[in-house]
Write a structure and sequence with these properties.
2 domains; globular; 174 residues; 5 strands; 4 helices; single chain; two-stranded antiparallel ribbon; alpha+beta; 3-stranded mixed beta sheet
Amino acid sequence: MGRKFHILNVVLAVIAVAAVCMFVWAMPGKSYCSDQSVVHLYFADRENRFLIAEDRAVSHSDEPADLGIIIIKELIGGPRKGLMQTIPTGTNLRAFYITRDGTAYVDLTREITEEHPGGVKSEILTIYSIVNTLILNIPEINTVKILIGGHESPILTGHIDLRFPFKANMLLIR
């Protein structure tokens, strides 16, 4: 009788935990469901002239901002298949959020400028690697504003004006 009683208690405990989880997942507001999607991350080609998509499967909640954070971290991690990294090693994501008007704010650490190789083309590919990847993967994003170290920065490394949000640039993609 004791063993049957113990098994019954375990089954009831599992049912109770499942019921609590269903209640939490059904709560309005933040979703805790995890989806897996294939996203297109844009990295530079070997000649540093164009952006080429590298497909990557990522797990995320159904919140656009959560997916944005994962995408930026994957970009920072670099390519896996023969493409060139567009965000300097050592750069980290400080903050990410999306406004109601569809502007994504990407706040990166100072390494994005301090470790950047410089040059107009390299700066363009860095910026549009971020911008195109976010806009083309997350429908809620229309424009992307890049912040550095928690502040607006007038330039990345000397050539490209960062004061205004960017729209996607399809001409850079091959």
